[in-house]
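Researcher: We're teaching a course module on how sequence relates to structure. For the next exercise, students receive a sequence and then see the predicted structure as tokens, so they can try to spot secondary structure elements on their own. Here is the exercise chain.
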Amino acid sequence: MDLAFTPEEQAFREEVRTWVQANLPKEISHKVHNALRLTRDDMQGWAKILGKKGWLAFGWPKEFGGPGWTAVQKHLFEEECALAGAPRIIPFGPVMVAPVIMAFGNAEQQKRFLPGIASGEVWWSQGYSEPGSGSDLASVKTRAERVGDKYIVNGQKTWTTLGQHGDWMFNLVRTSTEGKPQTGISFLLVDMKSPGVTVRPIKLLDGECEVNEVFFDNVEVPAENLIGEENKGWTYAKHLLSHERTNIADVNRSKRELERLKRIAKTEGVWDDLRFRDQIALLEVDIVALEMLVLRVLSAEKSGKNSLDIAGLLKIKGSEIQQRYAELMMLAAGPFAMPFIEEAMEAGWQGNFPGGVTANAPLASTYFNLRKTTIYGGSNEVQRNIVAQTVLG
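Model: And here is the predicted structure for the students to work with:
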């Protein structure tokens, strides 16, 4: 196992760093470094900048219009973007549905959908979870009935992240009730502007409408929007979830937020508290260990060996780390982290925040929001069972 980067890889890192610094809008990086509210234009604006460079599809092979980077190059790209304060690439299009379309879609579907994803012009949403069907995803009930050359879709999805911005949604729908639940699921692409689609934002504890309910009332979807074969959607869903759970680990964002935690600790005067600094050190050790685990996977891929099936393990550890750095930021700020002022989430807000430290304003919001990480993408309890079965045997 060789975890050292080659001179060529180091040169690639420098190329990415220089380009990102030159092209990432300063007002956006300011928001990201200070956990301020990102608008749709902020997120999609950065996606389009990357799209023009050909880097939004950074994980794609050349045959589909991607740069054809190695696993190590992809890792370095994500790290440099995170450390520079770039918004996370919204994963539903380029990271999640695109690989499914490449692997299981036909040539016409690839030609139709991939360019809009690669350019950042089309915003995709994920239609997986339903009321009563979260970690037990195989129990989805949203129904798609084949009528001639179209499907009629009825049902409901929930926790649809940023669905209020979505142009298209990839959906798990039930097309059969025969046999095991997994065998009757299909993978369907739905235009969210179709008649009968209703998006209802859910206001969360932190005051944001990050997730949504989506209702389907006799929505007509052309049969040509079916990916692969009918009733084989569970196979495609598992392919996609491996990308989602690796993405959730997000070790590069944790490295950036660790530096933010240190800044807050120094500003608040707790950096010299050895017991508190011990907690920061323990967190840093876990982040380094998570990064080493990621690099082990990359090293295996680079050498042509089979990598460990550890997507679930990455998700477990990455999500717990995100919750820990948010909690430590709150502890560093003490009572000044507690007031929740929604206006403080806006970059231009100039109110008198208690204590006079504006960096504290979004801490409560971040803490509340990151309580979700051990639940979404498959709860950590379920992931531990999967790891026990697939990795430990």
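Model: If you want an answer key for the exercise: The chain has a mean pLDDT of 90. Strands lie at 124-127, 143-147, 150-157, 168-174, 185-191, 197-202, 211-222, 226-227.
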